[in-house]
Design a protein that fits this description.
heterodimer, A: mainly alpha, two-stranded antiparallel sheet, B: mainly alpha, 2 strands, about 70% helix
Chain lengths: ~525, ~160
């Protein structure tokens, strides 16, 4: 690799991105993206798809800068409603909710938001650097990943998530089964036959996890808070930029988490068909396993906000890599952008770097600039966002309910989804009261389809023999790693029992509810 | 508390059996195109039912703790006051739509539960749906259920 040449190209790209019209396009895209991220039901994918027709009037460089800026903005913005109201604005911000919302409830919404935005930014930065210098070789490695490897990576995700939220492992397992079961509802991708639909036509398109998540977390939270009459309390903390600074001072402590989450997120993003959502869950799970304060995850740990946000943003960038270098989208949003490539008359692939130098390096340059501008924009808005929680409860509660309904409806435009959301809300209320952890359910629901598909395709490749997971080196490596990580907490418990409790056991998370 | 736990766990087991029955209607074994569509659902439903039984058995064995109650006194009423109107909004979605229904819900809750003053109640319950309407319908061109009433008012009789 010619480093000097890459630097030269990069400088050129920064120049392209910093030209006033492109810079303006980037700012507009970021603001729009943040708004799209905040509004439930409007996702980054929808946002990019809605803006695609607008880009026909722009030159390709400005067009890709606009679309990618919307995407960055949506990644930043998705965290806001998750942290403040437990309504995931975006699928990848569900994991941010686990610790972000308890933090906000403890009167530190500013800390949670700052941590989310800043780690998003750091994840993005690490990923962009990787993108700049290693795009072509990484894309080749990613192509070696077939169904067995993908299954192994997903297994790793489940390994890290087992026992998430602490508490009762049997109930966690139960919820994982439930999530995977709900994921099977709808058309079977391999045979094409509808299944687990109980005869309902509306269910044939499947149960979207965002609807369940909105019900379980958003509505469930409202029901719990009215019951305890606490309302959304403790949110009257002072809100100022000092909180931003105070949060930043915590960051050096989490260098490892940041680096690990960035690399993990980037790589998951590069793999075709995955994207920011699984990356954020895996990163959260792994951080929980490795953190010294892992048992307190779910009760408002800053690290629990940092890990998923870093990975989500790194994955968002990673997903663009195979798209630019090979023409294979790494995520649904990237797929929509890819459609744009063809409309603008570009052919993605290895030749793009040579034939459309301005476009490729302009895009890379705008990733740097866009994320710097993005983090500055959202950070200046932290006090404003945090102030939202001061709205009186009797207004906030119905408002959240309405936003939940809009978000759930917008996914498929069908009224049945609203009933599913209401049902999930009630279920979430009971689950929470009776100590059934919600996180494994949502994670299993998200990863379920992918896992089953990878598993079945692998078995077809191996003609029914599961040895295929061990005869391919990359797959074998991840399977072994997944098993080891899965066993880690049990081993830790054992050694603790043998050595006796050296450290007094920390109080298990009551999660303030 | 223990009774609620028992009933809920039993409910999960029943749900598991229902899932199992639904899964068994599909081929669960090896088919010419790999594992059949029922393979995953069958084993998942089995696992779900079994873990449900474990939870049920453990709750059965656990001793009754009279100090723990399922919900604080008066909680049911407060929960229903917030939940039933939600159901109402969804039930009348066809007629009222999300904007009118949502506005009414907001107004009623803010006034009768929050005891906020009328000017504030009206400002919020008219302002919020208006803002939502412009954001979703106009800017993002994302049609939400407007309901027959609003559609009649906006576009005239059809």
């Amino acid at each position: 690799m010619d480093l000097a040449r890459t630097f030269q190209d990069l400088l050129y790209g920064l120049g392209v991105a910093a030209s006033p019209p492109n810079l303006m396009v980037a700012v507009v895209g970021l603001l729009l993206g943040t708004a799209i991220g905040v509004l439930p039901g409007l996702g980054g994918t929808n946002g990019v798809a809605l803006l695609l027709p607008l880009t026909f009037h722009l030159n390709p460089t400005a067009a890709i800068i606009l679309l990618s800026s919307v995407y960055w903005g949506a990644i930043f913005g998705g965290a806001i409603t998750s942290i403040l109201f437990r309504i995931p604005g975006e699928p990848w911000s569900v994991a941010t909710m686990f610790d972000g919302c308890p933090l906000a409830k403890q009167g530190k919404p500013g800390t949670a938001l700052t941590a989310a935005f800043t780690s998003s930014f750091i994840g993005a930065l690490v990923a962009i650097v990787l993108f700049t210098f290693f795009a072509p070789p990484l894309a080749e490695v990613a192509l070696k990943f077939g169904p067995p490897e993908n299954f192994a990576v997903l297994l790793l995700a489940f390994g890290t998530i087992a026992g998430l939220e602490g508490g009762d492992p049997v109930k966690a397992l139960l919820m994982t089964f439930l999530g995977l079961l709900l994921a099977t509802v709808g058309f079977d991708i391999v045979s094409g036959s509808p299944r687990m639909t109980f005869g309902s036509v509306s269910l044939q398109s499947g149960v979207n996890f965002i609807i369940i998540a909105i019900g379980l977390f958003g509505l469930g939270e409202i029901l719990l808070s009215v019951e305890e009459r606490l309302q959304i309390e403790g949110m009257r903390a002072r809100l100022s930029f000092r909180e931003v600074w105070e949060t930043w001072k915590l960051f050096p402590r989490y260098v490892w988490t940041l680096l690990r989450s960035s690399l993990l997120g980037f790589w998951i993003g590069v793999l075709p068909g995955t994207g920011a959502t699984p990356a954020s869950f895996m990163s959260y799970g792994i951080a929980r396993q490795f953190s010294r304060r892992g048992s307190r995850f779910g009760t408002g740990e800053v690290e629990g906000v940092i890990a998923p946000e870093t990975a989500a943003h790194a994955a968002g960038i990673g997903a663009l890599l195979p798209m630019v270098t090979l023409g294979i989208p790494g995520s649904p949003t990237a797929a929509v952008m890819l459609a744009g490539f063809f409309i603008w008359g570009l052919n993605p692939g290895p030749l793009l770097f040579q034939e459309n130098r301005e476009f490729v390096w302009g895009l890379i340059g705008s990733m740097y600039l866009g994320n710097v501008i993005g983090v500055l924009v959202v950070l200046t808005l932290v006090p404003a966002f945090a102030a939202i929680v001061r709205v009186p409860f009797a207004i906030l509660a119905p408002l959240i309910t309405i936003l939940c309904s809009i978000g759930a409806y917008a996914v498929n435009n069908q009224v049945l989804d609203l009933w599913i959301m209401l049902g999930s809300g009630v279920a979430g209320y009971f689950f929470k009261k009776l100590g059934y952890p919600l996180a494994p359910l949502v994670v299993a629901l998200v990863l379920g389809d992918m896992t089953e598909q990878a598993f079945r395709q692998s078995l077809i490749m191996g003609q029914g023999s599961p040895t295929i997971f061990f005869t391919r080196p990359i797959a074998a490596f991840f399977v072994v790693l997944a098993v080891l990580i899965f066993l880690l907490p049990f081993v830790r418990n054992l050694t603790r029992k043998v050595r006796g409790p050296a450290v007094p056991a920390e109080a298990p998370g009551a999660a303030g509810s | 508390m223990r009774r609620a736990e028992l009933v809920f766990a039993a409910g999960l087991v029943v749900a598991g059996l229902v899932f199992l029955q639904e899964a068994l209607r599909l081929p669960t074994g090896w088919t010419p195109s790999g594992p059949g569509p029922g393979f995953f659902p069958f084993w998942l439903a089995t696992g779900f039912t079994l873990t449900g039984l474990v939870v049920l058995a453990r709750t059965w064995k656990a001793s009754h703790d009279p100090t723990k109650s399922f919900a604080p006194p008066g909680a049911w009423k407060r929960v229903l006051v917030v939940f039933l109107p939600m159901v109402g909004v969804v039930a009348f979605l066809h007629t009222l739509g999300i904007y009118l229904g949502g506005g009414l819900y907001l107004a009623a809750y803010a006034r009768f539960v929050g005891r906020h003053r009328w000017p504030l109640v009206l400002a919020v319950s008219i302002g919020v749906p208006l803002v939502l309407f412009f954001v979703f319908e106009r800017w993002f061109v994302m049609p939400l259920p407007k309901g027959t009433v609003l559609e009649w008012w906006l576009y005239g009789r059809r």
